Amino acid sequence: ARMVRTLVELFYDVVSPYSWLSFEVLCRYQHIWNIDLRFRPAFLGGIMQSTGNKPPAMLPKRAEYMLKDIKRMAKYYQVPVTISEDDFQRVLGKSNLGAMRFITAVDMMQPKYLEPLSREFWIRFWSQHEDISQLDSILAVAGQAGLSSELTQKLLEMMSSPAVKNRLRETTEEAIKYGAFGMPAVVAHFNGKPHLFFGSDRLELLASVIGE
């Protein structure tokens, strides 16, 4: 057995439903595989802009496929993500920057809450189809994830600080440096080099590359 654990970084944004699927699968396997899983909250909008990518739903045929695909993936992976045509407008119409800054602040202050907090944002947005852009939405999510009101208050103050903004920007730029053009972007550091896997449908390939 290999003693050295493979560092696996998951670059994600809670506005991405496929990121949720990857997140849950990697959470399940992190103690089965010999990996050290690191969550890297980043901003999908920044990646799209920088690489000239477009949301999949902008292409009608792809949007049509995505509705079926998410349904199958949700069933297969047992993740309560649901999607309808209204979601395409919802994603484009609301900003998730605040949510990702809040998650980034948690990563800097209390990383142990990163997993439950991220999950609650996905549940609210992709399961309950509710807003995540407004302040009260962020407060509700923080409560669901078990954050104290003191901590939540501190994080809200941090959200607009240069430190948090820079950290989110740097993480997003790091994902782009690894070759990311969308989300989720999974980077496995194996045999001295980074291996990028895009999407939630490459996890068996990831396993194969790292010898699992």
UniProtKB/TrEMBL annotation:
Could you tell me the EC number(s) of this protein?
A: 2.5.1.18
Q: Name one Pfam family in it.
A: DSBA
**A cellular component term (GO) from this record?**
mitochondrion
Name the Gene Ontology molecular function terms of this record.
glutathione peroxidase activity; glutathione transferase activity
What is this enzyme's class at the first EC digit?
transferase
Q: Which domain of life is it from?
A: Eukaryota
**GO biological process, any:** glutathione metabolic process
Q: Which reaction is recorded as catalysed by this protein?
A: RX + glutathione = an S-substituted glutathione + a halide anion + H(+)
Q: Active site: which residues? A: S16
**InterPro entries registered for this protein in UniProt:** DSBA-like_thioredoxin_dom, GST_Kappa/NadH, GSTK, HCCAis_GSTk, Thioredoxin-like_sf
Domain DSBA-like thioredoxin, by residue range, is 8-210
Q: Which UniProt keywords apply?
A: Transferase
What family, per the record?
Belongs to the GST superfamily. Kappa family.
Q: What is this protein called?
A: Glutathione S-transferase kappa 1
Lineage of the organism: Eukaryota, Metazoa, Chordata, Craniata, Vertebrata
